[in-house]
User: Fold Putative restriction endonuclease domain-containing protein from Streptomyces monashensis.
Amino acid sequence: MTAVDDRPMTTGMVKIFEELEPPEGVKMELLRGVIVMMASPDIVHNMIVADVQDQIPRQRWSRLQTQDVNILEEASEPVPDLVVVARDALPDSGRLLPSKLVAMVVEVVSKSSVHQDYVIKRSIYAGGKIPAYLILDPIMRHCVLLTKPAGEGEDADYLSQEIIKFGDPVPLDVLGLELDTSEFGTLPNVRPHRYP
Assistant:
């Protein structure tokens, strides 16, 4: 019989992850002890992120791309497509932003990120008690707004889920604004998926 060590690989895996240098144009994340690498995103993806960023007022909110988020009690350092933090809560420096400071994270779904965005990151962000998680899906042409995080670890989830089709406004109460989705692009010739 083979013994299996099922303890979380927090310290060791985080150390290995932080020492890795990804190739040019590759995004790298640590999600529950698994190192995930993805190629650079599509133009549709980048334009959606830019459009969301432009609608969030800089006077009140810091809108950060490629910012690593530290989720306590997790072997995870996700890098959301957009992280929104109150300007007065933003630290002066550091690679890891504590999840307790984050007001909202945004992920734009790509062909290769569907499961991570809808399942894995959903419980990671909920476990980190991030108040709002907005999934923007150019494959299915809709937004999924998740709020009211509850639970711990892999059992964590958002208690409220609202699906809004592209073109309709998304009420982002946590930011005190309504997001215009009418200009969001879509990914043509991509097979639909089964999420959320």
Notes: The chain has three helices and twelve strands. The domain at 41-179 is CATH 3.90.1570.10 (tt1808, chain A). The chain has one domain: 41-179. The mean pLDDT is 89.
